[in-house]
Amino acid sequence: MRPQQLSTNIFLDSGNPADTEAIFAALGFLDGQTTNPSLVAKNPEVRSRIESGKPFTADDLKAFYKTIVVDIAKTIPDGSISIEVYADEHSTVEELFEQGKEMFSWIPNAHIKYPITSPGLAAAERSVAEGMRVNMTLCFSQEQAAAVYAATRGAKRGSVFVSPFIGRLDDRGEKGMSLVRNIQQMYAAGDGHVEVLAASVRSLEHLYELFSLRTDIATAPLSVLETWQKEGMALTAQYAERVELKEIPFTETSLKKEWQSYDIHHELTGTGLKKFAEDWNRLLQTTT
């Protein structure tokens, strides 16, 4: 069952409904789940279909994605489930919004994942204005998080998530956890309508640090959550800090500007967007 003193919501990062059932049974609770094109590509049924030579059309793949989230929702009907639009460097605001609008209708507990790009932010602004919930993904800077806040200004708490990616910053020698801390510090001056959903959680150490920061939400893969359960679902533990990682300094950033005025460019956002698109398109290319 959920530890009594746990203030962070626990999400599973997976595109496999079987993982949802397994971790829900192991933990006794689950607050939500995040999915993305790369995770869908790893789904056992997708892999099996490719190996058997059965082709996917774009419509087939989208329909399969829908069955995945519908099945996940059967296990956690009251939990948030993030569904990611297909996006690449050529995607327009209208294309992203129309995808998001359709996906939002799939289940009653959806958050639509848009990338933190200019079209993604514009689509999110429109989505929130129409009563949709969003999860702004591939966040690697404070300025990006500030832009998310500005683009969704006026939304109710629970309607907007921002997803800073810890592990991918760690991979290049920067302390991803410091970005989470910086965003939380910056948001403390705001109205609280954006919740921080820490992503790219690679280890128990990441999870424990997020607990100590009282981060709103942590999404982690099945392996990390299973290890946490086996360790007794503790909220603190002794671990060696990675002193080789460079701290990302906090910068004073106003939340009162229009979203278009923030510098939202980050190399890792572009890299992540390309990876998600390639994983999705590879499924189609493999079977055509």
UniProtKB/TrEMBL annotation:
**Which keywords, in A-to-Z order, does the entry hold?**
Schiff base
- GO terms for biological process? carbohydrate metabolic process
UniProt xrefs under InterPro entries: Aldolase_TIM, TAL/FSA
Any Pfam family:
TAL_FSA
Does the record's keyword annotation contain Ribonucleoprotein? Answer: no
- Annotated coiled-coil positions are none
Highest taxon of the lineage: Bacteria
Protein's UniProt name: Transaldolase
